[in-house]
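Final report, Chapter 2: Outcomes

The project's central promise was a pipeline that accepts a single protein chain and returns its three-dimensional structure in a standardized token representation, suitable for archiving and comparison. That pipeline is now operational. To close this chapter, we reproduce one record exactly as it appears in the project archive, with the input sequence first and the structure output second.
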Amino acid sequence: MSNSATRVLESRVFAAPIATVWAQIRPAEFAFWKSAVAAAAIEGGAAGEVGSQRKLTFIDGAVQRYQIVELSDLAFFLTYELIESTPAVASSAAIHTIRLRKVTHDNSTLVEWESDYSSAGDETASVVEDSRCKKREALADLAKALGAK
């Protein structure tokens, strides 16, 4: 088996100010992701604290635990790492960053959701496709949470 690494990036522009979008992203509880996340809990620290953990229970029954590794209110980004998953995922490591950028032309917000995966074996293609689909779904849910039609 060979090891491989891959990066997945999805992005979307939202017709909302960056502070409004950041309020949805910063808690890292994914409350906006109604089509996939059933429950979220803060564990091992306080909200907004680097090193704190989030336990997400998905509608399909999967449970994942993430650790916040970087958070910037100045640069509007959140980085978190998958530390546990039931059932197990096909990657051996996954680090995700959600970054917001202000679009000055019309005060909208560009959201970029990037994930870096390491895996052993032939799972890379399925991991990439699954990640891409989930990000698109989550960004569509974020648009609904922000009041987009």
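Archive annotation: The CA atoms of residues 91 and 119 lie 4 Å apart.
This record, like all others produced under the grant, will remain available to the consortium after the project formally closes.
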